[in-house]
Amino acid sequence: MSGRARLTVFAALATLLTSWSLAGLVESSGWIAQAAALLAVQAAVGAGARRVPLARSLTVAAQLLVSLLILVFLFAGRGESTGNGPLAYLVTDFGALFGQGVRDVGEFAIPAPLTDGIQLLLLAGVLLVGLLVDMLAVTLRTAAAAGLPLLALYSVNAGRKPTTTAPGSRSCWPGPAAWC
Q1: What is the 3-state secondary structure (H, E, C) of the chain?
Q2: What is d(CA 67, CA 127) in angstroms, rounded to the nearest whole number?
Q3: Cα 117 to chain centroid, rounded
Q4: Mutual orientation of helices 3-19 and 116-134 as an angle, nearest 10°?
Q5: 35: closest CA among 74, 78, 93, 76?
Q6: Hey, which residues does 112 pair with through a beta bridge?
Q7: Residue 60 has what pLDDT?
Q8: What pLDDT was estimated at residue 175?
Q9: Cβ contacts of 63 within 8 Å, gap of 6 or more
Q10: How do the pLDDT tens digits run along the chain, 180 residues long?
Q11: In angstroms, how far apart are the furthest CA atoms of the chain?
């Protein structure tokens, strides 16, 4: 395995492991297996595009296009559609489901039920961060900068206050009361 192929695998693995920090946001963690499969496809497209002498921007564009198409077809038929024809149906369906996910995030408390809209938001976010990590670490060869999108993904759930399950149990780290 070449160095670039190893770096591709580790970039996808780092994204997947960091995405586990989002597992506490929803009741079910079944979306993580889907995220792993989608990240593997995205990484394979990037590795294949880098084997062919393409421009860096075309490699990233190919990964983005394949990721978007997979998400659109994965969630086709789950939203409220008003489109006529297959392409309009996919676009309006995808947009409606994305909007429903945004409404669901505003409506439900943590841990939220894993609705189709929330699942779309989670998968799209993980794929976007995976694309940024792959672009920075592998395509542009700036591995140190690839930690910034991973930090952004990790910090989504890191700032929420832990909840207590038993009366009298301590739910936050020992220290100043402002941390709780």
Answers
A1: CCHHHHHHHHHHHHHHHHHHHHHHHECCCCHHHHHHHHHHHHHHHHHHHHHCCCCHHHHHHHHHHHHHHHHHHHCCCCCCCCCCCHHHHHHHHHHHHHHHHHHHHHHCCCCECCCHHHHHHHHHHHHHHHHHHHHHHHHCCCHHHHHHHHHHHHHHHHCCCCCCCCCCCCCCCCCCHHHC
A2: 7
A3: 13
A4: 150
A5: 74
A6: 26
A7: 93
A8: 37
A9: 42, 45, 46, 49, 131, 134, 135
A10: 778 889 899 999 999 999 998 888 888 888 999 999 999 999 999 999 988 888 889 999 999 999 998 988 888 765 555 656 666 666 677 788 888 889 998 888 888 888 888 999 999 999 999 999 999 998 888 888 988 988 888 888 776 665 544 444 444 444 344 444
A11: 62
Cα 178 to Cα 93: distance, rounded to the nearest angstrom: 44
Q: How far apart are CA 48 and CA 61, in angstroms?
A: 13
- For residues 146 and 136, the answer to whether their CB atoms sit within 8 Å is yes
Distance CA 6, CA 10 (A): 6
**pLDDT reported for residue 84:** 61
